[in-house]
Amino acid sequence: MKTTHAALAEKFIADEPRTDWHDETLWFVREKRDKAAHGLPEWEQLREWGSQIKNHTLSNLYNYLKEFEEKAVANGIKVHWAADGDEHNKIIHEIIRKHNIQKIVKSKSMLTEECHLNEYLQEHGIEVVDTDLGERIVQFRKEPPSHIVLPAIHLKKEDVSATFHEHLGTEKGNNDPQYLTEAARQHLRDKFVQSQLAITGVNFAVAETGGFVVCTNEGNADMGAHTAPVHIACMGFEKIIPKAEHLSVFLRLLARSATGQPITTYSSHFHKPRPNQEMHIVLVDNGRSRQLGREDFRNSLKCIRCAACFNTCPVYRRSGGHSYHTAVAGPIGSILNPNLDMKANADLPFASTLCGSCTNVCPVKINIHEQLWKWRQVIAAEGYVATSKKIGMKGMDFLLSKPKVYRFAGKMGRWMIRIVPFVVNNKLNVWYKQREMPEPPKESFRDWYLKNGKTNKK
Amino acid sequence: MSAREKILNTIAINQPELTALPLIDRNALIRYEDVYAQFKTVLESIGGKVELVQDITELKEQLIADKASGNFVVNTIAALGDVDDQVVSFTASELEKLEKAYIKGTVGVAENGAVWIYESQMVNRLLPFICQHLIVVIDKKDIVPTMHQAYDSIDVAKEGFGAFIAGPSKTADIEQSLVIGAHGARSATIYVIE
């Protein structure tokens, strides 16, 4: 049986207090975002600039990627191109093999999650240590991150305490975040100092200069990259921006949108390897060039991975990241993932109320909710919707295109809820699940209007 | 066909018609009456410490006391005394016990409390990250209102590495509880020279 968002969400919401906590915690992050955004009078203008710079970049991507490659190579960086996740993993594996590397540290990179790098390397007997605190927690638990910025947001401190007790020997039952973070700091310092290879993500890559920027609060990307003799930075090619001056726009938008901070603690600009260091960049396509050709969906490539759309989404907040069964969850994931595998991710564009809040908070103005709606149509046309939904949609189509039938059905519905409520108040009706059916109105709006509309007019 | 050719060819076919880059209108940007006051307020709200100093020589005594304490302390600022140039080639295991580092910054940003530091100012790229306590010195005249002016006054590609650093290392990965001192410095003090 295929796992869908609805089925996985049902498991998540079985624990009601935890669901409420998850909901409130993410809403709190959304509120911090609002406060940070409102602190800048030019916020809406900034979003517009961010959006326009990204639009321009996508329209000139060919030239910018070539320019970036040329400059990066001149800076002494080795540039690799990977058509898909498998090629990306093989390139990294080859570098590891060449240097006979055993100790690897990795800071947060959603791209490596998308490509399943850790699993790939593990299959070849190579261990990767994730160094972002949240990622280390979920790695110990053999879980994927549930949020692209806050990987362990689905966990309570008691869970983290139990995990650290098992893996790091911390005191049983000590749930103090300060204590637990300190334990991770000590544990990971050893890993940094011994590391032979550091893998990082990329937040922005600058065509003009051939360099790239990595943003963290913890400092884990820097601890790895400045220690290990080999540094590999992995990026989807849409991370490119034209000029260094454009970093000002995106660094102003990114952390404020993500967590409500004015900027991340560290915004590190890498241009050349240090003496005796080897620096690599892997430029990955993995479906992005195809998405670029889909007019309705290419906008999704503007994403800067801030997760503001996650934090504001009523469905994400109440279903958790794992319900999306993909590396990038939330509203943006639901428009990116059908491009990667339409059949496997056909459920995701339906995991939305289409309320549009995601679009309103997006720092680069991606029309996320419109794309969700458009994906539904593509997925239906390709025949990937569940049969029950297909029949339902056909029925609605029949009903809504025939006014007389519609009026009759409305009358029947109102009569049934009033006279024989058990016909709708039962398990077969999915709308009855976790809900009471509404009190039926005595008459339809149309009936009311026919009676009162004309008299009330003047 | 190589992956590179395949990717670039598909992009060439699929990229939309050229659109224009926006003009960043500097008149639209926030202005602060007192950039130093704003810098201090923001940086202290994110866990940093800011102190105004009349003259850099005032810090000399503090550095001497720090070094005399027996802790591993590194100075990279010539105006404060001897520069510990030898750390340039130090490895992570040699720097692991570093208690404190004194580093000069190029520009401070009022809107977010960040300070730009070039690799040459760090001497060793690891220094501001691996030290337990970070001391950064900037000149008051080098505080600018926003990131736009900050990028105007630096050249990100001039050296192999550089970073904006805003306060101490932190995380909120456990139940959104803020903890200062994740992997990098546990404290960050910025001395602003009048």
Between the first and last Cα atoms of chain B, what is the distance in angstroms?
61 Å
- CATH T-level fold name of chain B: Rossmann fold
Which architecture name of the largest domain in chain A does CATH use? 3-Layer(aba) Sandwich
| Fourth-level CATH superfamily of the largest domain in chain A | NagB/RpiA/CoA transferase-like
Report the portion of residues of chain A in β strands: 5-15%
The global form of chain B is globular
Determine the number of helices of chain A (DSSP H or I, runs of at least 4 residues). Answer: 21
- The low-confidence parts of chain A are none
CATH homologous superfamily (4th level) name of chain B: NagB/RpiA/CoA transferase-like
The tally of strands of chain B reads 11
Strand order of the largest sheet of chain A: 1-10-7-4-2-3
Could you characterize what this model shows?
The complex is a heterodimer of chains A (458) and B (194). With 458 residues, chain A is of the alpha/beta class. Helix content of chain A is 51%, strand content 10%. In chain A, the strands form two sheets. In chain A, strands 1-10-7-4-2-3 form a six-stranded parallel beta sheet. Chain A has a four-stranded mixed beta sheet with strand order 8-5-6-9, with helices on both faces. In chain A, strand 5 and strand 6 form a beta hairpin. With 194 residues, chain B is α/β, with parallel strands linked by helices. In chain B, 27% of the residues lie in helices and 23% in strands. In chain B, the strands form three sheets. A five-stranded parallel beta sheet of chain B has the order 1-11-6-3-2. A four-stranded mixed beta sheet of chain B has the order 7-4-5-8. A two-stranded antiparallel sheet of chain B has the order 9-10. Chain B is globular. Chains A and B meet through helix 2, helix 3, helix 4, helix 8 and helix 10 of A and helix 1, helix 7, strand 8 and strand 9 of B.
